Amino acid sequence: MGVLLIGAVIGGLAFAAEDTGSDFGTSGLIKTPNARMAEDSTLRATIAFDEVANLHNLTFQALPKVQATFRYTIFNPRGVEASTDDLRDRSYEVKAQVLGESRLLPQVAVGARDILGTGAWEAEYVAASKRWENFDFTLGIGWGRLGSRASFSNPLRVLGGRFEERPDRLEVSGPQAGTSRGASFFKGEASFFGGVALKIPDTNLTFLAEYESDRYVRETNLGTLENPSAFNFALSWHPFPSTSLRLSWLRGNTFGLALSSQIEAKRASPRKYSRSNSSVDLDETTGLPEGYNPSSWYDRMLFESERGGVDLRRSDLRKGQKKASLVIENRSYNLTADALNHVMTMSEIYSPRHVTSLDLLIQENGQVGPTINYSLNKGQNVEDGRSELRSRIKILAPRELTKVSNRTDYGYPKLGLGIDLAAKVQLMDPDDPLRKQIFAKLTAKAELSEHVNIFVRYEQDLFNDFTTERNASSALPQVKTLVNNYLVNGASGLEQLYIEDKRSLGSSVHSWVYAGILETMYGGVGGELLFSPYMQRWALGFGLNGVKQRGFERDFQFRDYETISAFVSGFYASPFYDVDFALHVGRYLAGDKGYTFEARRSFDNGFSIGGFFTRTNVSAQEFGEGSFDKGLFFRIPFDGFLPGNTRSSYSTVLRPLERDGGRRLENFGGALWFDRRSFRYDVLDRNISRMVPR
Predict the structure, then answer these.
(1) What does DSSP assign to residue 673?
(2) 636 - beta bridge partners?
């Protein structure tokens, strides 16, 4: 009845519908989901405000037919006087497309809301969406909260009596919450919901209307609402293709506001060519470096490569040889293929006439990568012969350069200094949705050789609203829940001071050892070994750390707690959708033993997003609120936002809660596999076309 009424109200309007995020972040109408999916790899942030709850959502189109949302909810944000609702809730939602739209059939999706957590938004649904001319209609059936209005017996009871009754949400989530609600999925009574969306022609406005099957029993019992209506209406404005602002009339008595913005994470980065005068046009009066020999092909290649952001370490070209071998290191290009393109282009100009091919030996941070063989094609028209040029590039096994005819003197030791503004944030704390610090970050890097570096990082506090008021009690050693003591008592302090050695022990074995002050809470020694065979999508790793907890002031003092953590890791680069998997098994900082599973979808433009969870021999009661460690990982490259080439990025891990179980050192352990991704065989092979000289 509700769906028919909505259709009658707007039956005279017409438009072509677009995917939009609902107040819950997932593709939908206003409060209800539809069957639509965003473009693959779309990352969408949505904030929605109304008197029931403020919703903060992060939605990722993880696969073309799978959408996932992480949500933080502040219930009763306006402080309704009669309400006793003070919940701050974290939850996850997953929706999957099971049927694509055809001329006669609708698109169909199935989803579960609040799959982990307290179950405050617990619901499951099946939604069908169909476009007809300018309309996009949705009709669905829901369970849980979406099955609470005008409900009827569960149609799934034909599959067994277990679907007739829905268990109490608190019994399913447990006293610590954070566990799966699988025991209640699609159980209990069900209800219909539905609606329609339309875009007003020749405008950036979209009108939405829906019949909502959530009766808000919880909020009514807590005094936030009284007799909410089932109908919601909204007008959405799209000032930009990636941004929408929606004003809603909700439940017949209140306004709501939602802001949504999104990006397509896998969009290829544009190639940025370096613009500078050729060394042929330069002389002593225009700034040639000391010792530069204009008659040396190596000096000219070195000069041009470094100006383009690539280090030329050494080479081998003997008299009479037709192949030159060069060891190169990418300093500036977000995509290794672009760095290779630059070197290949320069080699077409500056390599000796008798040289017909190059071996480019990739090196990064002292470790070897694949060898790229390029057959020179001097004088050929690049535009006409591009497909032929692509066939002249081959990816070969990693190797060391054993004979050296030219070597660049980088003047070790070298010192680099940096200063910039940075921030730390704690999101979705039960007491405060956002705590933050702004600080000046002072860094120094001393390069002692190609393999050995010393890193220093000092942080000077500028603004800080972190607090130690929240109880950090734990049944386990407090290996992470004390972090706010460092953020408050050590607001300004030494963050890192360590020495490292990175090198390859062979073409397939790579090592990293380090010692010193490693992170906010720990100092010590450790190392990692990675066995990554050439052309294989799998790898094995081993990591070992012996650490001691630092003093709260982040100086050179240490506390009594010390521990050893060790892990055996397996890695796999899936050929599907750029998804990398990792499994780490071992001993964690608190002495608990178990495993961590992580999956990351990483794109060639440097953007990466993923999730992880850890299960150990610590029970949910010992772990505390949240039941087990879990979270999301993000890496956002700056290359797409800055005019030049850069490898800089921002990386962070987002956890619902800081707890002590299942915790490892941050950024030390299991990192080599992901650090080497940019020059892995499968990534290079996929980007051969970008290597072709212009």
Answers:
(1) H
(2) 650
